[in-house]
Specification:
Rossmann fold; formyl-coa transferase, domain 3; 2 domains; 15% strand; CoA-Trfase_III_dom3_sf
Length: 423
């Protein structure tokens, strides 16, 4: 394997457990690239599923070259170390008939196939669900695409940024006098991936427990974002209200905002009725704490500016640490805004072992080379069958021979496929 757990860093008290995981025995075939499909497969692999990732022999998944590389010149993405952890990399030329046959044979043994190509591409390759499920009626196929497998936009290219816009997230994000910004991560892809995982688990449960067959899980990126939009649909449907950008506040839920202190900003969520009373008392505003008109959220909303002004005035003469001390003592939800450097230094992250270190020889690196790489721990935490990082992102095609041999290909056959650039 390309990496093994090294001595844990100062934030870990023990090397991650090497249990089988709750999805042990589940076989996943990943046909996706970049973010949404691979993130869904990564999630399943972290909890014990065997994930076989199909990559183009000429360069593999483009994510191998995204963002910060190690080594910096000509290396492999550090993101790859986590996005492809626990996966087996198998190179297959999907344009070659013998390459397609390899995929069909792998799909015959799989429980789940995950793909995020444009709708119709797998069908053009002869690898659609109708073909793959003939030999494997119990197969679950997770299909992630910009707009889903149907509708007038079906054939358009769709990335997470477009989904965030169409799904409504961008319109309500930012300040009203500025253009809508994007969130600094690919949140649309990640939300869609998690919907794909949930759908796959429900489909497997139906197959295994209810006597059902396999099925397609059709996830449109924009619909996954749309599913997170809380009350915007009924508010528009009943009142014709269009939610707009409100900066750092959470509209209609008071008080919940980002507030400046002398040396930076903090976030306060004082929006439940008892917490509001504690917050107002802690900042010396008993008059607001005891005002019957402010006892419930619907009464506080019309007086948002007054309440936020009282909080801001109290914070303006205090440092972040001073404010946190008072508000934590009053049992008010409050927190500083963390950078990744703050996360590395924080005792809560350490106690929960959320940052773990591994020794990684970047794919393509020379023997004996490597880097200590910090990765996020697997989430969520299961008490009996926790997830695990068994190895980091593999070299391109690292597991091709192993996987093909398990399918019955002998060494000569594999050598011929490699010579013909099929694998």
């Amino acid at each position: 394997m390309s990496a093994a757990a090294a001595s844990p860093d100062s934030q870990s008290s023990a090397t991650p457990a090497k249990g089988a995981g709750p999805l042990a025995g589940v076989k996943v075939l990943e046909l996706g690239t970049l973010i949404a499909g691979p993130f869904a497969a990564r999630f399943l692999g972290e909890f014990g599923a065997e994930v076989i990732k199909i990559e183009d022999p000429k360069g593999g998944d483009p994510l191998r070259k995204w963002r910060k590389l190690y080594p910096e010149a000509g290396g492999t993405s550090l993101w790859w170390a986590v996005q492809a952890r626990n996966k087996k990399s198998v190179t297959v030329n999907l344009k070659a008939e013998e390459g397609k046959e390899i995929v069909r044979r792998l799909a015959k043994e799989a429980d789940i196939v995950i793909e995020n190509f444009r709708p119709g591409l797998l069908e053009k390759l002869g690898l659609g669900y109708d073909v793959l499920s003939k030999d494997n009626p119990g197969l679950v196929m997770v299909r992630l695409s910009g707009y889903g497998q149907s509708g007038p936009y079906r054939d358009r290219p769709g990335f997470g940024a477009i989904a965030e816009s169409m799904g409504g997230l961008r319109h309500i994000t930012g300040y009203p006098d500025l253009p809508p910004p994007r969130i600094g991560i690919s949140i649309g892809d990640s939300i869609a991936a998690l919907h794909g995982v949930i759908g796959a688990m429900m489909a497997l449960h139906h197959r295994n427990m209810n006597g059902g067959s396999g099925q397609i899980v059709d996830v449109a990126l924009y619909e996954a974002v749309f599913n997170m939009m809380e009350s915007v649909v009924p508010e528009y449907g009943v009142y014709g209200m269009v939610r707009e950008r409100t900066g750092a506040s959470l509209p209609g839920i008071v008080p919940s905002n980002t507030y400046p202190c002398r040396d930076g900003s903090i976030v306060i969520g004082g929006n439940s009725d008892p917490i509001f009373r504690r917050l107002m008392t802690a900042i010396g505003r008993a008059d607001l704490a005891n005002d019957p008109d402010l006892a419930h959220n619907d009464g506080r909303v019309p007086r948002t500016a007054e309440i936020d002004g009282a909080i801001a005035a109290w914070l303006s003469i205090r440092t972040i640490d001073e404010a946190l001390g008072v508000l934590n003592a009053a049992d008010v939800p409050v927190g500083r805004i963390y950078s990744v450097a703050d996360m590395f230094a924080d005792p809560q992250f350490a106690a929960r072992q959320m940052i773990q270190r591994f020794r990684w020889q970047a794919p393509g690196g020379k023997d004996g080379e490597g880097v200590d790489v910090a990765l996020p721990a697997v989430t969520p935490k299961l008490s009996a069958t926790p997830g695990d990082t068994r190895w980091l992102g593999p070299a391109l095609g690292e597991h091709t021979d192993e996987v093909l041999q398990a399918l019955g290909y002998d060494a000569d056959h594999i050598a011929r496929l490699r010579e013909q650039q099929i694998v």
